Amino acid sequence: EPEVTQTPSHQVTQMGQEVILRCVPISNHLYFYWYRQILGQKVEFLVSFYNNEISEKSEIFDDQFSVERPDGSNFTLKIRSTKLEDSAMYFCASRSRWDRGEQYFGPGTRLTVT
Amino acid sequence: AQKVTQAQTEISVVEKEDVTLDCVYETRDTTYYLFWYKQPPSGELVFLIRRNSFDEQNEISGRYSWNFQKSTSSFNFTITASQVVDSAVYFCALSDANTGNQFYFGTGTSLTVIP
Questions:
Q1: Helix, strand, or coil (residue A86)
Q2: What is the mean pLDDT of chain A?
Q3: Which residues of chain A are under the pLDDT cut of 70?
Q4: Those residues with Cβ within 8 angstroms of residue A36's Cβ, 6 or more apart along the chain or in another chain
Q5: Distance from B15 to chain A by nearest Cα, in Å?
Q6: pLDDT band at B99 (very low <50, low <70, confident <90, very high)
Q7: B73-77, long-range: CB within 8 Å, 24+ apart, which pairs?
């Protein structure tokens, strides 16, 4: 069964450094999402992406964040200058054009900012 | 605005007991989807069930069952004869069909099943 993959599974970085989290959505999906879960808290929406542009973003998704689909398979989340409070689990998700109800989540990348 | 409330923060039960996890949602949309996810200690989100707003039939899958009631905006989840492997955090989520389909998650219920 096709699945969403994310790399790395765990990333440790120093405050102020740039990080790029990578996701490979399911191949025929057209809508892509990033979510964040701070330890012990709920999963929060960051951004949705369709047709090579951001379709929606939350208040969390400020100028420090950016997303890109650099090729036909990857979907990336970049944090330009990480802060301690960016430490969280980041989930990528994708959905097909035809099923508005289902998003398939990746296993997550745990980001630790020291 | 869309909102999901899981009032139970933590629940502990003894193995083989039944347990119900509550979920109450708010949305102005007429077409929406409700979900339950399980998050084990390893951190991934495991999909359990999806319901759309037009389908109020209750569903049973093995030891799991779900009770969807639009009249009370609730989508509760019951585990029958709980097992230690059911220990996890369970999230209820709402996605509406008309505003980009982003998921709105509840704050989760941490279930501990004691052997």
A1: helix
A2: 93
A3: 100
A4: A43, A44, A46, A60, A88, A89, A90, A91
A5: 24
A6: low
A7: B73/B24, B73/B25, B73/B26, B74/B22, B74/B23, B74/B24, B74/B25, B75/B23, B75/B25, B75/B34, B75/B36, B75/B51, B76/B20, B76/B21, B76/B22, B76/B23, B77/B20, B77/B21, B77/B23, B77/B36, B77/B48, B77/B49
A100 touches chain B (CB under 8 A): yes
Are the beta carbons of A49 and A67 closer than 8 angstroms? yes
Partners of residue A41 in chain B, C-beta under 8 Å: 107
**Greatest Cα-to-Cα distance within chain A, rounded to the nearest angstrom:** 42
User: Can you name the residues that pair with A43 across neighbouring β-strands?
Assistant: A37
Of B67, B60, B3, B68, nearest to B29 by C-alpha is B3
Angle (CA) A82 A45 B21, round 5°: 120
What's the pLDDT tens digit per position in A33-45?
A: 999 999 999 999 9
**Residue carrying the six token digits 């639009």:** B70
Q: Which residue of B has its CA nearest to A50?
A: B100
B64: which strand partners? Answer: B61, B79
| B27-73 residue pLDDT tens | 988 889 999 999 999 899 998 998 888 888 888 889 999 999 999 99
**Are residues A43 and B102, on separate chains, in Cβ contact within 8 Å?**
no
Give the Cα separation of A94 and B84 in Å (integer): 31
Give the residue on B whose Cα is nearest the Cα of A101.
Answer: B33
